[in-house]
Amino acid sequence: MSEKESPDYVQISTAAAMTLKIFPGRFNRGERLNALNLLVVYDDSCKGNCGYCGLSQSRDPDENTFIRVDWPIVSLEDILARTKKYGKHLGRVCVSMITHPRAFDDMCTIMSAFRDQTDLLISGLIAPTLIRSKEKVMKIKEAGADMVGIAVDAATQELFRKFRGEGVNGPHKWDQYWKVVEWSAECFGRGKAGIHLIVGLGETEKEIIAIIQKGEDLGAKTHLFSFYPEGGSSMSNWKQPSYGQYRRVQLARYLINSGIQRAEDMKFNDMGELVEYAGEDTPAGASHLPSGDLSSNVEKVIESGEAFMTSGCAGHDGVVACNRPYGNERPSRPIRNFAFLPEKSDIDSVRKQLVDYSGDFERSL
Amino acid sequence: MLEINGMNFPLDRVYYTRDGAHIWLKQEDDLIKIGMDAFLVEYAGYLTFLTVNESRVKVGESIGSFESAKFVSRLYSPADGEIVAVNDEVIKNPRKINEAPYESWIFAVKADSAVLDGESEYLLDDEEKIVKWISEEIKKVEEDE
User: Fold this and answer.
1) Contact A26 B69 (CB under 8 A)
2) Domain A9-364 CATH class label
3) What average pLDDT score do residues A248-277 get?
4) Which pTM was predicted?
């Protein structure tokens, strides 16, 4: 057994490693990370085999990135010390389980250490396959977490089975994930449970927007991710979703999670693409989103830019702390999740993306 | 060798400072080898992509770009001239620059005219001036944090 396993050691995201001065580097456009992302670590790794994941058992062992970047293994003691020294602006820490028999207890141990030694709010990103009772969810709260996330990832049961379950000889079950979402919302309260969904696993916009609504109705907000092909994974040759697709889902998520609109009031074309929001007139002769009428609610939301910022767990100030700068794209590419309020030039670009149904924006890059 | 805040700045070369370029230049025979200084490497983080796109270069103009997991910027030329060599090793594996910035030249230029003659305000080889410049750069970064 390696000496570098949880709970004494954890993996830490590149952004968190930079923030704690373990890695060199700064963020493009002066961005700043507001939440630490930690991952339990074991020699024998995750028992899942998810097709898109950097932790998959079947992945090329020479590849070691996760969600696009390196995750160095660092001692928990060192992370706590550095958090106290360099983490004054941090609002939250998220401790992620993997599907490993020791992961639950170790996640709780790590959370308790943060609760006892820092002022950070604490999230747990939990693995439902290992959580078989509501009492176990309560233990996460007792360990210090005020929020939990469940990485459902795939927007439909069929895609879940294909990429996470039987389709890849993986252990995960759709129904079990949603049962834990329900338990989490009950234990932590409405809006204190979140689901992770990845845009671009083959779902339609209509399908993922419906599942965002399902989460909202259960009391769980959606934290949205854009698929990124991990080198060495079985989906390494897949493309990222178009910016048009991603922007429309981002906007719908914001409208649904803010209680402004419901999924069933939105209109979709034959391809399942979102073409109209509730109560919004489309421009004459057009079959897509309005693009200039600031009198409408949707236009106000677009103009504010907030809908296109990273969605995730909030800090003490109620603003998203888990802002994940450049988590879904290289910094040289247009930003998918803004870690800051987009500027006017960003919004101008977002507007073009929202009404792009043919990939013109990608071709213009 | 000059050490400032744990970063090394060898005095056997000249530093190009314009617009935060942080480029070093070293004369080798009739060529000038060019790379990134320790401050820029620390600022950018572990490099993942590096491109050199041009063959003719003009001082102050972008000749390519570099990128890390969370940062991207242009690479600027400190001289007018022709790029006669590009270091393929660092193009293929830019992290070599993080490991040894002063051994990892990126491109070599045959300059149109004398560059390292001490005329340009943007070229520093004086120890005192380098210390002042880097100290100011560190202060700017600290103020942003």
Assistant:
1) no
2) alpha beta
3) 95
4) 0.92
